Amino acid sequence: MAKTFDNEYKNIVLQIISSIPQGKVASYGEIAKLAGKPNGARQIGFILKNLPKNTTLPWYRVVNSHGRISLTGENYTRQYTYLINEGVIFKKCHMTTKYQNHFLLIGLAHKFTPKTHPLLR
């Protein structure tokens, strides 16, 4: 049986991802937290995996919690190329510093406060 998500949750996730600006990234876990499911990082990956091939959503701006691309093969190369073309800096296949290219989704961060968000501590 295929996994399904309610459209409201999926739309929130897609809105959050579409808000990541060029040259910045966010992790699966951060997106899940902002969407209201703090343990839903894998769900974010599932949603992204099932996007149509011709999507204009910047799916490639989503990386794992270590700042690495979690895809393999041709998909890895495609994501890496998109990020390099946007100016994201990598060293040994991960970003040079964990938050150098990180983006705090300010407009959608209603669930976080400066005390609880790891990027604002």
Strand content: 5-15%
SSE order, as H and E? HEHHEHEE
Shape: globular
Helix content: 25-40%
Low-confidence stretches: 96-121
The CATH superfamily is identified as Winged helix-like DNA-binding domain superfamily/Winged helix DNA-binding domain
Structural class based on helices, strands and sheet pairing:
mainly alpha
What's the architecture in CATH terms? Orthogonal Bundle
User: What is the overall pLDDT average?
Assistant: 77
- Distance, first to last CA: 41 Å
According to CATH, the fold-level topology is: Arc Repressor Mutant, subunit A
Total number of beta strands: 4
Q: What's the CATH class label?
A: Mainly Alpha
Strand order of the largest sheet: 1-2
Please tally the helical runs, counting DSSP H or I stretches of 4 or more residues: 4
Cα radius of gyration in angstroms: 14 Å
Largest sheet geometry: 2 strands, parallel
Tally the structural domains. Answer: 1
Provide a descriptive summary of the structure in words.
- With about 120 residues, this protein is mostly helical.
- About 35% of the residues lie in helices and about 5% in strands.
- The protein has a single domain (about 5-110), classed as Arc Repressor Mutant, subunit A.
- It has a two-stranded parallel sheet. Strands 3-4 form a two-stranded antiparallel sheet.
- The N and C termini lie far apart (about 40 Å).
- The model is unreliable at about 95-120 (pLDDT under 50).
- GO terms for molecular function: methyltransferase activity.
- This is Methylated-DNA-protein-cysteine methyltransferase related protein.
